[in-house]
Amino acid sequence: MRLHDVDSAVTCGGVLSDGRRWGCGTNFARLDILRNHHKSRKDRQCIAKRDSEEQPTASIP
């Protein structure tokens, strides 16, 4: 197996339940590198949409 094999790459991103996409689409060879990408200050915006969907919105009475 090659290190930079596209078939085994993990990608920053996905599709939300409403059909919108989140993440930057960058491919990484290893999952731990993707996790470091998400933890970096610069790239927290990649998961901001995903995290905002997971948190329930408060209803205003």
Structure description:
With 61 residues, the protein is α+β, with helices and mostly antiparallel strands. It has one domain (6-54). Helix content is 31%, strand content 13%. The protein contains 2 helices and 4 strands; from the N terminus they run ββββαα. It has helices at 31-39, 45-54, and strands at 10-11, 14-15, 21-22, 27-28. It has a two-stranded antiparallel sheet with strand order 1-4. Strands 2-3 form a two-stranded antiparallel sheet. A hairpin with a 5-residue loop joins strand 2 (14-15) and strand 3 (21-22). The radius of gyration is 14 Å and the shape is globular. The termini are far apart.
Summarize the structure.
With 61 residues, the protein is α+β, with helices and mostly antiparallel strands.
Work out the strand percent. 5-15%
Shape assignment: globular
Enumerate how many helices there are, as a single number: 2
Stretches where pLDDT is under 50 for at least 5 consecutive residues are none
> What is the averaged pLDDT score?
78
Major sheet attributes = 2 strands, antiparallel
Order of helices and strands: EEEEHH
Strand order of the largest sheet: 1-4
Q: Could you tell me the number of beta strands?
A: 4
Q: Terminal Cα separation, in Å?
A: 57 Å
**Total domain modules:** 1
State the helical fraction: 25-40%
Structural class label: alpha+beta
**Alpha-carbon Rg, integer:** 14 Å
Please tag this protein with its features:
61 residues, alpha+beta, two-stranded antiparallel ribbon, two-stranded antiparallel sheet, 2 helices, 13% strand, globular, C2H2-type domain-containing protein
